[in-house]
Amino acid sequence: MHRCCFFALDQDFSAVAADFLEDGRQAGEQALQSSEPLTLDAFRGLTEEALADGFSGLRVAVRTGRAPSLAAELAVDRYTAEAPLHVLCGYDTRAVGPDAPADLACVHRGAEVAAEHEPGFTVWSTLNGIGLSGEVDLSNVVRFTAALDGVAATAGGLRGPFVVDAAELEFADARAAAALMAFSDAMGPRHPVEVVHAPRSLVAVAETLGWGDRLRLIPCGEAA
Amino acid sequence: MSTETLSYRHDAFFYAGIDEFTTRVGKFVQDGVVGGEAVLVVVSAQKIERLRSWLGPEAAGRVEFVDMAEAGRNPARIIALWREWVDQSTGTGRALRGVGEPVYPERAFEELMECSRHEALLNLAFDQAEPFWLLCPYDVSVLEAAVVEEARRNHPWWVEGGERGACAEYVEVDTAHPFAQPLPPMPVGAEVVSFAGADMRTVRELVSRHARAAGFSSDQEWDLVVAMNELATNSVQHGGGTGTARVWNDGARVVCEVVDAGLIDTPLIGRLPPDLSRSSGRGLWIANQLCDLVQLHSGPSGTVVRIHMRADA
């Protein structure tokens, strides 16, 4: 689990973090707080220590005023998909900057942000690729492209086909299809990209533009 | 009609009834086959069967046939079909001979308007040096006189009763103002929304609602939504940053249009596959591929793109 929350009052974060950590203790996990973002190596080391100490996993509430890069967030997200690590990233809206909520919410599944910061889509890591939800069009394709760049930068450790599960992707326009095609090219032949459960909008755009040979799509309702 | 062509030729062929069609078009096709030319025939399924029978299995086997009712349901898709075939065939060194009948009496008024535009644009779609002879049959026994007159305005040459001549009424496409012809007025009661920037979701929701009300399948609904989304995006990116979307149900069809302040003056826009390296030109191409009919008016006062889709039977 890799969640985030945004707060302007310290007590707001404290309340959310307390509930998050208590849920972990109830599940036999080690519960920690951090006042700074942790690196992937730090998360990895702490998780291994927690397991060695007999905990069922690790749960960390991070309180920070510094927004990490999308690639760093996605690297942590990928590790949470593989290991018993649960992270709550608490961002101080007084410090992270005006664009940060939307940038960060798009890589934290289930993030709750104000309507004006709603990114419109979410990217999260899975064991063999990523999942996508929401809608991508002219309004958010720049952020979508940046998120895919972050995914490409952190997916090198995977083997075999890279699966993009689009079951929760409701709409993708021609710009979104082009971004996915560029992502597929960037992943290269070692990690051939397959978009499974592709929504009709994405299939229609890719077919009409003749992109089927560069972007492997398995439509919604067809077996992967 | 047996003279060999050495340059691009676009002829209207006037005939009366299926028997004359079969005999004369069959001879035209047969001459091409005997001459070693590549031949593609795009007509109705019924006429394909008649021609196959007239030609016999050996000659018919050397001809490509495509059902116009499917490939040319939206007339704006036909030029890409011809272009692809010509490009594939040119390398063989053979002369090319085609038969295309996009105009038939079952077409609705708006479709006939777009067929006329298609026929006119065919005069720009191929280089005059290409050895491609394209014959467009018109059945004068069933078509309205105005439709036949229109064929004389958008074909440089006519063929009738074994004779051939230059069309005196022929008018070249005004390449500076190719979409000046106004569209028929929209009906009272269309639902209207304005959009700018990130407002595409509003346009998509409007189109979805009408598509569902008309009984569209899920795929059809999304195809119409995709087409309108791309056209509205074009308005934001190339048409002044804002636009208006209008949608109405016309019997079994849903008709949508996007209005903006932009100007479109590229005659073949949306009729040939867009350059993959550029984002421009995608919207109209996508709309043409996904919709039953696309109409376009553009001038100094702005642009209207109107798209039609009928519920699948």
Overview of this structure, please?
The complex is a heterodimer of chains A (224) and B (313). Chain A is α/β, with parallel strands linked by helices. Chain A contains 7 helices and 9 strands, in the order E-H-E-H-E-H-E-H-E-E-H-E-H-E-H-E. Chain A has helices spanning 10-26, 40-52, 70-82, 100-105, 141-154, 174-187, 200-208; strands at 2-7, 30-34, 58-64, 85-92, 121-126, 129-136, 162-172, 193-198, 216-219. In chain A, helix 6 (174-187) links the parallel strand 7 (162-172) and strand 8. Chain A is globular. By secondary structure, chain B is α/β, with parallel strands linked by helices. Helix content of chain B is 39%, strand content 25%. Chain B has helices at residues 17-34, 45-60, 68-71, 78-90, 109-125, 145-154, 200-213, 218-238, 282-290, and strands at 9-15, 38-43, 64-67, 96-100, 132-139, 157-160, 163-166, 191-196, 242-250, 253-260, 293-299, 302-310. In chain B, the strands form 2 sheets. In chain B, strands 3-2-4-5-1-6-7 form a 7-stranded mixed β-sheet, with helices on both faces. Chain B has a 5-stranded antiparallel β-sheet with strand order 8-9-10-12-11, with helices on both faces. In chain B, strand 6 (157-160) and strand 7 form a beta hairpin. Chain B is elongated and about 60 Å long. The A-B interface holds A 135, 137-140, 171, 173-175, 178, 199-201, 204-205, 207-211 and B 197-198, 200-201, 204, 218-219, 222-223, 225-226, 229-230, 233, 236-237, 273-274, 276, 279, 282-283, 285-286, 289-290.
Strand content of chain B: 15-25%
Overall shape of chain A: globular
Distance between the termini of chain A: 25 Å
Structural class of chain B: alpha/beta
Number of helices of chain A: 7
Percent of residues in helices of chain B: 25-40%
Rg of chain B (CA only):
20 Å
Helical amount of chain A: 25-40%
Largest sheet of chain A: 5 strands, mixed
